[in-house]
Protein backbone atom coordinates (compact mmCIF):
# COMPACT_ATOMS: atom_id res chain seq x y z
CA UNK A 1 0.00 0.00 0.00
CA UNK A 2 1.35 3.39 -0.94
CA UNK A 3 1.15 5.98 1.84
CA UNK A 4 0.47 9.42 0.41
CA UNK A 5 0.89 12.82 2.03
CA UNK A 6 -2.89 13.04 2.26
CA UNK A 7 -2.99 9.85 4.33
CA UNK A 8 -0.24 11.16 6.63
CA UNK A 9 -2.10 14.48 6.97
CA UNK A 10 -5.36 12.66 7.75
CA UNK A 11 -3.75 10.42 10.39
CA UNK A 12 -1.94 13.42 11.88
CA UNK A 13 -5.23 15.32 12.06
CA UNK A 14 -6.97 12.39 13.80
CA UNK A 15 -4.09 12.11 16.28
CA UNK A 16 -3.93 15.91 16.69
CA UNK A 17 -0.28 15.94 15.56
CA UNK A 18 1.60 18.15 13.12
CA UNK A 19 4.44 17.02 10.86
CA UNK A 20 6.49 19.29 8.64
CA UNK A 21 9.00 18.59 5.86
CA UNK A 22 11.51 15.91 6.83
CA UNK A 23 9.40 14.71 9.76
CA UNK A 24 6.42 14.11 7.47
CA UNK A 25 8.63 12.16 5.04
CA UNK A 26 10.04 10.08 7.90
CA UNK A 27 6.55 9.29 9.21
CA UNK A 28 5.42 8.32 5.71
CA UNK A 29 8.39 5.94 5.36
CA UNK A 30 7.71 4.43 8.80
CA UNK A 31 4.07 3.84 7.88
CA UNK A 32 5.06 2.22 4.58
CA UNK A 33 7.53 -0.08 6.39
CA UNK A 34 4.82 -1.02 8.89
CA UNK A 35 2.32 -1.82 6.13
CA UNK A 36 4.98 -3.87 4.30
CA UNK A 37 5.70 -5.81 7.49
CA UNK A 38 1.99 -6.50 8.04
CA UNK A 39 1.69 -7.73 4.43
CA UNK A 40 4.63 -10.05 5.09
CA UNK A 41 2.87 -11.44 8.17
CA UNK A 42 -0.20 -12.24 6.06
CA UNK A 43 1.95 -14.64 4.03
CA UNK A 44 2.61 -16.85 7.06
CA UNK A 45 0.56 -20.05 7.15
CA UNK A 46 -1.40 -20.04 10.40
CA UNK A 47 -3.91 -22.75 9.45
CA UNK A 48 -3.11 -25.17 12.30
CA UNK A 49 -1.96 -22.62 14.87
CA UNK A 50 -4.13 -22.07 17.92
CA UNK A 51 -4.81 -18.46 18.85
CA UNK A 52 -2.65 -17.20 21.69
CA UNK A 53 -4.84 -16.04 24.53
CA UNK A 54 -2.26 -15.83 27.32
CA UNK A 55 1.48 -15.30 27.04
CA UNK A 56 2.25 -18.01 29.61
CA UNK A 57 0.53 -20.96 31.23
CA UNK A 58 1.15 -19.53 34.69
CA UNK A 59 -1.83 -18.74 36.89
CA UNK A 60 -1.99 -15.54 38.91
CA UNK A 61 -1.63 -16.24 42.58
CA UNK A 62 -3.41 -13.39 44.27
CA UNK A 63 -4.00 -12.93 47.96
CA UNK A 64 -7.48 -12.52 49.33
CA UNK A 65 -8.62 -8.92 49.49
CA UNK A 66 -9.20 -8.44 53.19
CA UNK A 67 -9.68 -4.90 54.49
CA UNK A 68 -7.43 -3.91 57.37
CA UNK A 69 -6.83 -0.60 59.08
CA UNK A 70 -3.22 0.48 58.64
CA UNK A 71 -3.43 4.16 59.58
CA UNK A 72 -6.20 6.06 61.27
CA UNK A 73 -7.50 9.32 59.84
CA UNK A 74 -5.91 11.31 62.67
CA UNK A 75 -2.51 9.64 62.08
CA UNK A 76 -2.65 10.50 58.39
CA UNK A 77 -3.65 14.12 59.03
CA UNK A 78 -0.70 14.55 61.43
CA UNK A 79 1.60 14.58 58.38
CA UNK A 80 -0.50 17.03 56.37
CA UNK A 81 1.08 20.45 55.80
CA UNK A 82 -2.41 22.00 56.01
CA UNK A 83 -5.62 20.44 57.22
CA UNK A 84 -9.20 21.50 57.84
CA UNK A 85 -10.88 19.34 60.48
CA UNK A 86 -11.07 15.96 58.70
CA UNK A 87 -9.62 16.91 55.30
CA UNK A 88 -6.39 17.89 53.58
CA UNK A 89 -6.27 21.54 52.47
CA UNK A 90 -4.78 22.12 49.05
CA UNK A 91 -4.46 25.17 46.80
CA UNK A 92 -7.45 25.84 44.56
CA UNK A 93 -7.02 24.01 41.25
CA UNK A 94 -10.12 25.03 39.31
CA UNK A 95 -11.80 28.39 39.15
CA UNK A 96 -15.56 28.76 38.93
Largest sheet: 2 strands, antiparallel
In DSSP terms (H or I, runs of 4 or more residues), the helix count works out at 3
CATH topology call of the domain at 5-42: Histone, subunit A
Helical content class: 25-40%
Uncertain residue ranges:
none
In short, what is this structure?
With 96 residues, this protein is mostly helical. Helix content is 40%, strand content 4%. The chain has helices at residues 5-14, 21-42, 73-78, and strands at residues 83-84, 87-88.
Could you explain how this protein is built, in words?
By secondary structure, the chain is mainly alpha-helical. The protein has a domain at 5-42: Histone, subunit A, CATH 1.10.20. The chain has helices spanning 5-14, 21-42, 73-78; strands at residues 83-84, 87-88. The protein has a two-stranded antiparallel sheet with strand order 1-2. The longest helix has 22 residues, at 21-42. The mean pLDDT is 88.
What is the element layout, followed by pairings?
Elements: H1 5-14, H2 21-42, H3 73-78, E1 83-84, E2 87-88
Antiparallel strand pairs: 1-2
Amino acid sequence: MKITEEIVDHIAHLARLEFDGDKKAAIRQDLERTITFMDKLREVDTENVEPLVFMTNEVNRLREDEPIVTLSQSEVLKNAPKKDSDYFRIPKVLDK
